[in-house]
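Continuing the batch. This is chain 6 of the set; chains 1 through 5 are on the previous pages. Same settings as before, nothing changed between runs. Recording input and output for traceability.
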Amino acid sequence: MSRIWIGLGVIGTLSDLGEKAPWEQIALTKKKYGAKWLKEATALVNAPRRSASFEAGLGALALLEHQNPKDLCESESESGLALREARKEVAAALEEGKKAAPKFAGPVALIGVDSPCQIHPLIAQIWRTRLPKYIVICANSGYLPNRVNFSARSGAGINALEFLRSMEISPGEGDFGHGHDQASGGSLPPERWNELLGKMGFVGNRE
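Output for chain 6:
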């Protein structure tokens, strides 16, 4: 496990909650490897699984092939170059997704995007810092066929997971309400997603 120099927990936490997440291991890892390289490596490792081709294994391969985050970020290896190409693709999709504006109902700020890339968690995280008093939900209607995939993020003291689990909709395909207090989401067919939107208060204002 020591060969995977950062630890998947640190990368996952940075992805979900950002670099200021209150976890001691993040501060220790920053001190050892440098915040700049840790942040860059996290973005690179996550890029393939967020790309339209969903080559998630590339990130794991790169972690195994490189000794530290700086080596990974500066690598000219096949895996290192592949990570950078995936990041370019995701960055372009993210720039487009950032143009979407939130809509509000009760405690929820809803952002709708339509992208083959898995940008919904990133958009939710961006808006979470801008709207700390809301549960931010980014819904992506273009990620999978006949599905709406969505990510929910919330600030300290606001439980996004509990909120989603309190929503009762008709049985059917897909699921939602997994993760942890400040990072949850789901994947639903359009009809169940619309029902969930109605439960959240977006009646007549559905994506």
